[in-house]
Amino acid sequence: MHQYLLILRDDPAIFHQMSPQQIQEVFAKYVAWRVRMQEAGRLVGGNKLEDNTGRVLSAGPSNQMRITDGPFAESKELIGGYFMINADSYEDAVELCRDCPHLEYGAIEVRRVDKM
Amino acid sequence: MDGEIVEALFRREFGRVVSTLTRIFGPRHLALAEDVAQDALIKALQQWPHRGVPANPAAWLILVAKNLALDSLRREASLTAKADEIARALSPAATTPEVIDDQLAMMFLCCHPEIPRDGGIALTLKTVCGFGTGEIARAFLIQETTAAQRIVRAKKLIRERDLRFELPDHELPPERLDAVLETLYLMFNEGYASGGDQLLRRDLCGEAIRLARLTAGHAATRAPECDALLALFLLQSAREPARVDERGDLFLLRDQDRSRWDYSRIAEGILRLGRSASGDRLTRYHLEAGIAAEHAAAPDFASTDWASIAEQYEQLHELNPSPVVALNRAVALAQAQGAAVGLRELEKIEHHPALERYHLLPAAMGALWREMGDAARAARYFERALACECSAPERRHLEKQLGELALA
């Protein structure tokens, strides 16, 4: 078993057009997925990240630290949150994500924790 | 984390949040209240799967929405102009959610007599009940743009006329209550009509009942006519399980399996009807609930007290002389005194312009002619009914009756 980080990218603007009932339907799927993962012993943890805050630190010219406000994204999609799960392989991790409702409105990046 | 969540929680909570924020920030910030209520739901959607549903979801959502609204108002340049709203939002009174009062006051604002009824219903459904514009359009079988326009116009009137968010604490002006009750009556009838999206329509009836209950139960708004309206809703909706089958086909009162009626609703309806008799105002809701109670009390179609029903339709006709009421009175008279009497009454209104496209008039005449043994005439009337606009289940029912005539 390895740990995999599921990076949840999404565009929150999608939800602005949904009715409360539609939002609840997405929510119910989300909860069902999480409960399934938990009961299968696959879920390590997860969190939602704040949408409109962030800092990016980088080395500027002549070794000056540069700090800019974020979050930064190339497209409209931001990293909105993450899950950490247990899986046997990338194939297994992808299979577990296949019915994650996050895919209905965003993308999931799957990365394995390097244990070497 | 608990996987269970109450049905329609988000829709309900949206209505509560909008109502409470409208109290805090005033009706001219209604659009802001809706925006931040939506944002609070989105935050819940994204955060609750990780952290679990909070113990008090309503308080959580109101707090989140209020903070978002404050951020938004602070961002606006003219901070001084908004100072009073911000101060009010931060005052201790605003943090104890008097949720029921807020929803009632919101409903009285949306159903203000100065707002057209169709706009009042749409705005109530949008803000107090948490329906999306698309859902309102589907429930009323109108275009989404039409629904959106009605809502925009209603909101504009609130701003222009500077309508207030308040629950009258002394004498409730009758026209304010009348407007609210009429809106709920139309909402329920729209939901009770057949056709369209069945689930949405059921929700519409459910909301009309919930809001009628709030109105009838609150010291500031309760009145005998509120009990009468609630009694009417309960008695009508008690028949729902026997009225439509899985396919959406209709069963007329005559053919319903009465063991499927909801008798706890009927009991509550009768109780409410009794309570409604205390005032000195006799409204159409009293009479319509009285008629529904006669049906509910009858063990079967044949033993229904049709004479009493016809008498109540007579009173209803005096109060509200509409051709549709005359039609119902004639149908009751036909049951009480025979098909010939009913037909005589129906012929008086047969050419009423308001009933020209109303399928239930030829449908009733067809049924009575069939009872008189005149199959040819009956068929002509059923065909005429089919030429009018009616819902798919009603159409199937009429076609079935026409088919049975051909077989006989």
Q: State the end-to-end CA separation of chain B.
A: 63 Å
Major sheet size, sense and barrel closure of chain B: none
The stretches of 5 or more residues of chain A where confidence is low (pLDDT under 50) are: none
Helix content of chain A: 10-25%
Q: Mind summarizing the main beta sheet of chain A? A: 4 strands, antiparallel
Structure description:
The complex is a heterodimer of chains A (116) and B (408). With 116 residues, chain A is of the alpha+beta class. Chain A has two helices and six strands, in the order E-H-E-E-E-E-H-E. The longest helix of chain B has 22 residues. Among the domains of chain B are: 75 residues; 51 residues, no CATH class; 52 residues, no CATH class. By secondary structure, chain B is mainly α. The interface between A and B is medium-sized, with 25 and 26 residues.
Helix/strand layout:
The complex is a heterodimer of chains A (116) and B (408).
Chain A: E1 2-10, H1 20-39, E2 43-48, E3 55-59, E4 65-69, E5 78-87, H2 90-97, E6 106-112
Antiparallel strand pairs in A: 1-5, 1-6, 2-5, 3-4
Chain B: H1 9-25, H2 30-51, H3 57-75, H4 83-90, H5 92-95, H6 99-110, H7 117-128, H8 133-140, H9 144-160, H10 174-192, H11 198-217, H12 224-237, H13 240-243, H14 263-276, H15 284-297, H16 306-319, H17 323-337, H18 339-349, H19 360-371, H20 375-387, H21 392-407
Offer a quick outline of the entry.
Chain A has 116 residues and is α+β, with helices and mostly antiparallel strands. Chain A has helices at 20-39, 90-97; strands spanning 2-10, 43-48, 55-59, 65-69, 78-87, 106-112.
Which terms summarize this structure?
heterodimer; A: about 120 residues; alpha+beta; Alpha-Beta Plaits; 4-stranded antiparallel sheet; 2 helices; about 25% helix; B: about 70% helix; elongated
